[in-house]
Amino acid sequence: MGTLVDARNIRGVYYTGAKDVVAVDDVSIRVEEGEVLGLAGESGSGKTTLGSIISLIARPPLHVEQGTLEIDGKVQELGGDARIPRTWRGSVVSMLPQGAMNSISPTKRVRHLVWDVMRSHDRRISKEVALDRARERITALGLPVRVLDAYPHQLSGGMKQRVVTIISTLLNPRLLVADEPTSALDVSSQKILIEMLLEMLDQKFMSGVIFVTHDLPVLRTVATKIAVMYQGRVVESGPTQLMVDRPQHPYTKALMSSVLTPEPKYSKIRIEGMSGFDRTSFDAPAVIHS
Amino acid sequence: MIYDVSHLTKVFGRGRHQVRAVDDVSFELEEGQITTIVGESGSGKSTVARMLLGLLPITSGTLTFRGKDVTHLRDRAEYWRQVQAVFQDPFSSFNQFFTVGKLLNRSMKLVGKEAGQQRLEESLGHVGMDLEVLDRYPHQLSGGQRQRVMIARALMMRPALLIADEATSMLDASLRVNILNVLTDLRDSLGMTVLFITHDIGQACYLADRVLVMEHGKMVEQGPTDEVIFSPRHAYTKRLLADVPKLHSALELEQP
């Protein structure tokens, strides 16, 4: 299958007055058709900033100084004063921001949000058509249709997150950028959401996903490829299994070694995490596995 | 045994809207051990911690600390010298306008001036920080540093029991290990008893001597870490473990 998204040489800077903060420093990433790219890193590594630049929602104080985004062969300039056609936002690339599930209006039923999202992209769409689309999706993914009539507080955290995920792809975007979609959920709800995401990809509700998270074990279950970010740069990227089992870059090694999972060895040994590594070694050149 | 919790129950609301958040929970804390309560959101684990701290009235049950009934204490000042807590959010538990020094000064007053200064240096030493941090404001510290300051604050009282409620949940994985190591060091060097509450079985596995598992307000399984995590008996514990994403695929095959 071909390349879905090719983002090249992206540089994103926060203009904060006193001094500029380069959050994304000349980063290039690719997502193949049907693939989930995991974007991993610590807080402040620039992963969310990169996600929002690619989903075309960068706003001041964040400025995209350079970069191009190619989707399905169509090239869009991102840097400087480039005009981004509004048809791209939401329908070519869709963003599921962190904490979206807690941003649904508490006084409106879920179906109102569906209608709101659909209407903002197609002024003439009727309420019935919009809701039919949502009902169809919800049924196809095995969720109860009544969630549309519920108020947010009547849904559990896991269900809310599944609902906003479905709503974020109602417009059939080519790419979905999901920012920490599982981080606020407990492990069982995480698993259900990930299975649903893969199912959505299978049914072609979207053609590719960028999954932004700090949670490496979650990425191993969902991602085809992983890119690790550190201080605004991608330090290593490659197929998931390779990244997990044989990381090359010192930073990736350090990151992998600080993960605690319930495996027998962890109850016996002491792990030093990041502090056991020499921080200067993290500046080593990037390792890009094909 | 330093703490005995017996038939602890907490009911919120009344009548039709009644919720049994904690339902007849009993367990003991051994002196000098780290005990972890694991459970998903809504399992009641934080409610247990808040009752132990005396921050929430108890519906029924008894709490015995060092042989003394502490279920309904009028004056908790002495109790809180011995039982201290660290909470989840190191960003909101700080007063933004206080330097770290001012924050710790308040605890110093409780200890007394002369012993206080020494205790302060000692506490910061335990969490691996130097005295420079005293002049800093919270916004100048990272999440991990703030949480270590919060632990140092709790240590000022030289508590016998430290209750840490999701103390590492808001930190990056790389900083998390650091805090967990501080806790194991405190156990090993001061013989401190720790009750650590988390939803993350990986952390429980790394840290705990004993693990307690809660589901819907009930304590469904408890025992030594190796037994509970590597040969769980209760169906809920098994499911919880099966749902945890592992980093290495080979280990998933080993799972029963």
Structural account:
The complex is a heterodimer of chains A (290) and B (256). In chain A, α2 crosses α3 and α4 packs parallel to α5. Chain A has 8 helices and 11 strands. Chain B contains 10 helices and 10 strands. The two termini of chain B are 34 Å apart. Chain B has a single domain, classed as Rossmann fold (3-Layer(aba) Sandwich), CATH 3.40.50. The C terminus of chain B is likely disordered. Classes of the chains: A alpha/beta (290), B alpha/beta (256). The interface between A and B is large, with 36 and 36 residues.
Give a quick precis of the structure.
The complex is a heterodimer of chains A (290) and B (256). Helices cover 28% and strands 26% of the residues of chain A.
Number of domains of chain B: 1
**Which pair of chains has the greatest number of interface residues, and how are they split between the two chains?**
A-B, 36 and 36 residues
Largest sheet report of chain B: 6 strands, mixed
- CATH level 4 superfamily of chain B: P-loop containing nucleotide triphosphate hydrolases
Count of DSSP E strands of chain A? 11
Q: Which keywords apply here?
A:
heterodimer; A: 290 residues; alpha/beta; Rossmann fold; four-stranded antiparallel sheet; 11 strands; globular; B: 256 residues; six-stranded mixed sheet; disordered C terminus
